[in-house]
Amino acid sequence: MYVISYGDRAALSIALPALGKEFALSPVEMGWVSSSFLWSYFLLNLPSTIVLDIVGARLVGSVAVALWSCAMLLGGMVQNISQFLMTRVLLGIGEAPTFGVGATVVRNWALPKERGSVMTVLLTGMQLGLAGGTIAGAYLIALFGWRFEFVALGAIGLVWAAAWWMTYRNPAGSMPRRGTARISIGEVRALFRSRSFFGILVVQCTQNYLNFLVMSWMPLYLIHELRIDVTGSGTSTALCYLCAAAGAVIVGRVSERIVFRRRLHPPRRRFIVAGCLGGAATIGLLPHFHTMTPILLVLSVSLCGLIAANGANTALLTDLVDDGRKIGAVTGVTLTFSNSLGLLAPIVTGYIVSYTGRFDIAWYMCAAALVMAGLASILMVDRPIAMRSGDMRRDA
User: Fold this and answer.
1) What is the pLDDT of residues 82-111, one digit of tens each?
2) Would 65 be classed as within a structural domain?
3) pLDDT on residue 231
4) Measured between alpha carbons, how far is 39 from 95 in angstroms, rounded to an integer?
5) In terms of residue numbers, what domain contains 95?
6) What is the pLDDT of residue 183?
7) Distance between CA 346 and CA 87 in Å, rounded?
8) Do residues 108 and 326 touch, judged by C-beta distance below 8 A?
């Protein structure tokens, strides 16, 4: 599911040069188009995950992927930019519960001491999808045009939705009793009174910003900086994603063994988060390089740290929330706020490129934010997250 989700997101980034030319878009307008699926995505993160906690991952997974795959199919048939924006909004509606489904499955099936590495493996699907989407999209565009790219990737998602419905079953005892699944306003307030939850949210916001920036602009950045064509950009982008995915799995597994070598104490996972965010902050070195090898190396190292940090941070959330039956909704709360910041990344970067002609400021901003987020994780995420108001004194 993650592979298909991010493959479909990558379809636009690699198609932007051709799509922008067809619809006569400026860099600022391309930034707005890149962020368009996030408009509905972040608004529906919480509502969709509340539904997920009620009906389970089997139904929500199938319906969500089928819906966003239909949006991809329609995206390849549009006649103007307004119609295309509508399909991107529909894509965001379908993708809204994706991470809630993943967190729910991990909470239900993974051993507590291995949740970080399991989540990291799961999140490598993002990078595999971005790699596959960019390289396949580049060649599909070169051979058949960007419209065929959207239709082909949409068809793959429909096949997955049917397969998930036929093969996946919610584990026995995982479905909540009637009336227990809905997250209340009081519980949401309790989350934001928790210092640990706030620290996790800060990390999620900063890593989402860099994630959406890279996802939206990296192919164009490589074309701009290295003077290569769309297929060369797609191949280079895919290489970065694949190296980052492999590295993140190794980093996540090794770091868990080191941090938990004596005993399992979930808050110690914050040190993994902080260390990986430090690796991701190497993105700030990009303005100092102008040839392919060092640029691809910096991007790969930064993305490796980003994926591993995301996996460890998500595992922290699933570990520390005291009511596991509502992990989907809690993930939805987290994503609602983090994606509201992430959706600004393509837009802000578009303005930066338009006014400066370069990406340098964007990379420096991300590096500084990642370092500060790592410090926030170390200082704030140190105890369980209570969702009941009566428990807040113990969590404060």
Assistant:
1) 899 999 999 999 988 888 888 788 777 777
2) yes
3) 78
4) 12
5) 2-168+182-395
6) 65
7) 18
8) no
Provide DSSP, 121-139. Answer: HHHHHHHHHHHHHHHHHHH
Q: How many CB atoms lie within 10 A of CB 17?
A: 19
The residue behind tokens 């993943």 is 102
**61 in Cβ contact with 109 (< 8 Å):** no
Residue 173 counted as domain residue = no
pTM: 0.71
Question: Of all residues in the chain, what percent carry a pLDDT higher than 70?
Answer: 92
CATH code for position 132:
1.20.1250.20
Number of independent structural domains in the chain: 1
- Give 372 or 131, the one with higher predicted confidence: 372
Can you tell me the distance from the alpha carbon of 39 to that of 53, in angstroms, rounded to the nearest whole number?
23
Residue 177, in any domain of the structure: no
**Residues 6 or more apart in contact with residue 50 via CB below 8 angstroms:** 181, 182, 183, 328, 329, 332
User: Is residue 176, in this structure, part of any structural domain at all?
Assistant: no
Query: Please, which pLDDT band fits residue 393 given cuts at 50, 70 and 90?
Result: very low
d(CA 74, CA 69): 9
